[in-house]
């Protein structure tokens, strides 16, 4: 299994009110396309829990940077207490939205250096002494992209605020 180096704490965006969920979904998936990430939807389920409608979506986005490192983000969208509403003759959703974003570098994703114990040692030495400063640059770049993604979410939600 490839080694993961998380670049920052999990970022969380919360929103309570009316929103265009379909528009948000499309905007976020286009953001990943624009930044050349390969986006996969791991889970999408709508369910009821205690009479409350809920929706859970899990995404994983990856971008190949080198033949040794990939950028990866895991996104969890959770919509609680939601209901369909009509606003200005358009279907919207009212509810509590929480989005969690985790980002990490995935090293040796082809598992070339993980087959034998001595190769793992060489990989660690390679990471520390050869790639040290480059690795820090990549971590900073991925952390910046993670923040840009969070800003995109917040921007969309602010534009879509209709009322509480």
The largest sheet, given as strand count, sense and whether it forms a barrel, is: 6 strands, antiparallel
In angstroms, what separates the terminal alpha carbons?
Answer: 45 Å
Under the CATH scheme, the architecture is: 3-Layer(aba) Sandwich
**Spans with pLDDT under 50 lasting ≥5 residues?**
none
Number of self-contained structural domains? 1
State the helicity in percent bands.
25-40%
Which topology does CATH recognise?
Delta-endotoxin CytB
Instruction: Write the element-wise H/E pattern from the N-terminal end onward.
Output: EEHEEEEHH
Overall body shape: elongated
Average of per-residue pLDDT values:
86
Total count of helical runs of at least 4 residues: 3
Classified by CATH, the class is Alpha Beta
The chain-level structural class is alpha+beta
Structure description:
With 164 residues, the protein is of the alpha+beta class. It has a single domain (3-159), classed as 3-Layer(aba) Sandwich (Delta-endotoxin CytB), CATH 3.40.198. It contains three helices and six strands; from the N terminus they run ββαββββαα. Strands 1, 2, 3, 4, 5 and 6 form a six-stranded antiparallel beta sheet that branches. Strand 5 and strand 6 form a beta hairpin. Helix 1 (21-34) packs antiparallel against helix 3 (132-159). It is elongated, with a radius of gyration of 19 Å. The model has no long low-confidence stretch (mean pLDDT 86).
């Amino acid at each position: 299994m490839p080694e993961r180096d998380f670049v920052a704490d999990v970022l969380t965006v919360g929103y309570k009110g009316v929103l265009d969920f379909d528009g948000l979904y499309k905007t976020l998936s286009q953001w990943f396309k624009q930044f050349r990430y390969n986006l996969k939807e791991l889970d999408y389920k709508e369910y009821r829990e205690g009479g409350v409608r809920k929706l859970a979506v899990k995404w994983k986005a990856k971008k190949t940077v080198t033949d040794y490192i990939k950028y990866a983000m895991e996104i969890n969208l959770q919509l609680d207490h939601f209901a369909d509403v009509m606003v200005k003759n358009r279907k919207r959703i009212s509810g509590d939205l929480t989005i969690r974003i985790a980002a990490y570098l995935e090293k040796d994703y082809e598992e070339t250096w993980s087959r034998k114990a001595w190769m793992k040692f060489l990989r660690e030495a390679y990471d520390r002494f050869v790639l040290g400063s480059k690795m820090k640059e990549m971590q900073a770049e991925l952390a910046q992209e993670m923040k840009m993604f969070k800003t995109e979410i917040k921007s969309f939600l602010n534009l879509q605020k209709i009322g509480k």
